[in-house]
Amino acid sequence: MKRLTIAFALLAAGLSLSPIAASAQQTGATRATQPAASAAERDLRSFVDWVSDKMDKAETGARREWPGMMADFDRQSKRLDKATDSLSVQSRREYSAQKARYQTWSEEQQRLEAQAKQPETAQQAQNRLLKAQVTISRAPAADLPELYENLLTNTREQRRQWTLQDWALASDVLTRLNTRYEKVRQQLSLEQRLRVRTLQGEFRTLEAARAGKEVYVR
């Protein structure tokens, strides 16, 4: 009977200690994951700062450093790709956004580099800026608002990397659109005409701002 009592006492003690042991194990696991999460967040902050720094560089300077920049991007993104599980949901979204931001910028830099080696023709520039292969002089009136929209979208997104040649090509496209618009504008609704006039004005405003910046720099 005495032995049975001792056995029950030991069993009860073991059961009472089990939650404590489990809690201790869980606490240890939590502490182990915290350094990994903190390291991943630090890597993300460094990556965000790096992307911003590179995008602030003038395009000519960026192209000179291109091989090293690509190597840095690959190194940092590979490390973060492996640690995404340690990032918060918000941080993962920010990482994806920064990667997309850098990749869009780098593609534009590569285009500029290729263009510097082999200048883009007027037709190629038009196709790129309007996102369509179209003969402007025969474009239907109904297509003009969308063509203006495409031109302005590209201008807004790319103007900070544009050279004077890029601006000249874009301005030429706008001039040809305007010529076609004057011939067929009566076929458009008042709302469409107002939208076109707004886009025409926006382009000239952006163009003038660039010209003013060039004068100031000189």
Could you characterize the architecture of this molecule?
The protein has 218 residues and is mainly alpha-helical. It folds into 2 domains: 24-117; 122-217. The protein is built from 8 helices and no strands. It is elongated. Residues 17-24 and 29-33 have low confidence and may be disordered.
Order of helix and strand elements from N to C terminus: HHHHHHHH
**SS strand fraction:** under 5%
Count of helical segments?
8
The dominant shape is elongated
- Report the sheet with the most strands, covering strand number, pairing sense and barrel closure: none
User: How many domain modules?
Assistant: 2
How large is the radius of gyration? Answer: 30 Å
N-end to C-end Cα span: 103 Å
On the 0-100 scale, what is the average pLDDT? Answer: 79
Helix coverage percent: over 70%
Q: What is the number of E strands?
A: 0
Low-confidence regions: 17-24, 29-33
What structural class do helix, strand and pairing data support? mainly alpha
Question: Which key features would you list for this structure?
Answer:
218 residues; 2 domains
Summarize this structure briefly:
This protein is an all-alpha fold.
